[in-house]
Amino acid sequence: MATDNLLIEIKDLHTYFYLAEGVVRAVDGVDLRIKRGQTMGIVGESGCGKSVTALSLMQLVPPPGRIESGEILFYRAVRGNNASTMTEVVKITDLKPNSKEMRSIRGNQISMVFQEPMTAMSPVRTIGAQIMEVIMLHQEVDRAEARRRAIDMLARVNLPNPAQAIDRYPFELSGGMRQRALIAMALSCHPSLLIADEPTTALDVTTEAQILELMRTLQNDLGMAIMYITHNMGVIAEMADEVAVMYLGRVVEQTDVQSLFFNPLHPYTRALLKSIPQLSDATAKKRRRLEVIKGMVPDPYSILKGCTFHPRCEEMIPGVCDQVLPMLIEVEPNHSVRCHLYGTP
Ligand code: SF4
Q1: How far apart (Å, rounded) are the C-alpha atoms in residues 326 and 321?
Q2: Residue 326: CB within 6 Å of ligand 1?
C-alpha cells in the first residue's frame, strides 16, 4: 500500500487491561491510517476504545494496561543535508514509554488536548510556566525566548491580554479560556499530529463553536494533522476529512466524511446517524420519537463470538453474525467496512 503523505499507520493494534475481574480488550485489532494535514475523526460510544487508541499512540497507556501486539508507525519528516525534507519511519510500539526518543516525540511532534483542562494542567502553576516548560524541554531556547513564544501562542489561540494571562493560574480562567490555554500548550512546539480527545465536551455550544473554529484556523496555519476523538456526529461533520467508526475496540467502518453521512454502510454507523435529533423534527407537525440504538455496549470483560455488534444489530444474520468475526474489507474505493452484509466469511 502507498505510504505517500502518510503520517501515522496503526496495524492490528491490541491494548489490553489486566484487572482482577478479568481482561478488558480495550483495543482489539485496530487498523488506522492518518495522512499529513488531514483531520481523522474517531467516533463511537463511550468504552469503544477511542481514547485508549490515542493513549497507545502516545505510549501513555496507564497500568495495568499495556500494548499487547500490533504496530504503530510514525512517518517523521526530517531535514536532509541539502535542506530537502525526507521521511524516516519510527516504530512507536518498539519504543519504551520513558525512553529519550519517545519523550522527544510526545508533546513535541505528537501532542494531545484532553477533555478537561483542569485535570490536564497543574492547578498550582501558572499557565505560562506550564507552556514554557514544554517549549524549553523540546527546543533549545532560554527562559526569555520561551516566554515570548508562549505569549505568541496564547495570542494565536485568541486569549485576551496574553501578556497578562500568561501569569494566571488555570482556576482564574473560564472553561473556554482554559481549553484555549491547553491548546496553546499542545501547539507550542508545532506538532505534526494533534490528538484532540473530546476537547469541547465540557463546554457550552457557543464556546464549542469558537474552539472548533480556532482549531481549524490553527490547522490551516500550521499544517498539522488532527486525530479528533468524539461521540458527537455533528462535530465530526464539521471537523473531519476522514472518519473511523469504532465499536468495542475495533474499527467497523472507515471512509471520507461525505461517504459516511450520505452512504453509511455498517448497521452501527446507520444507527448512530439515526439517533441524531433532526431540525426537521422540531418543525414537523407530526412528532416522532428520537431513535436510540437498542441494548447496551456489552460488559467489557465479556468475549462475544462473531460480530461484537450482533446482540444489538437489527440486520443480524443468525448462524453467521453470531459465529464468525467479520474482517474489515474495502467494499468501495476508500470505504472499508467490517460486516457480513458486504462479504462472505
Ligand atoms: Fe450486523 Fe451481522 Fe453486520 Fe454485525 S456482521 S453488523 S451483526 S449484519
Answers
A1: 8
A2: yes
CA-to-CA distance for 233 and 44, rounded, in angstroms?
Answer: 9
Distance CA 153, CA 148 (A): 9
**How many other C-beta atoms lie within 10 A of the C-beta of residue 22?**
13
Least confident of 158-172, 243-257, 271-285: 271-285
**Mutation choice for ligand 1 from 253, 268, 308, 310, CB with most ligand atoms inside 8 A:** 310
Write phi, then psi, for 235 (nearest 5 degrees): -65, -40
**Which contiguous run of DSSP H or E holds residue 67?**
strand 65-79
What spacing in Å lies between the alpha carbon of 309 and ligand 1's midpoint?
6
Atom of ligand 1 nearest to the CA of 307: 4
Nearest CA to ligand 1 atom 8: 316
pTM over 0.90? The answer is: no
- Name the residue with cell 486525530: 227
Q: Is residue 177 very low, low, confident or very high in pLDDT (cuts 50, 70, 90)?
A: confident
The rounded Å distance from CA 289 to ligand 1 centre is 25
d(CA 310, CA 128): 50
- Identify whether 64 is preceded by a cis peptide bond (ω within 30 of 0): yes
Query: Per the structure block, which three cell numbers stand in for 123?
Result: 492547578
Give burial (CB, 10 Å; 0-12/13-18/19+) of 232. middle
Peptide bond into 267 cis (omega under 30): no
Q: pLDDT value at position 180? A: 87
| 50 Cβ inside 6 Å of ligand 1 | no
Give the Å distance between the CA of 319 and the centre of ligand 1. 11
3-state secondary structure of 239: helix
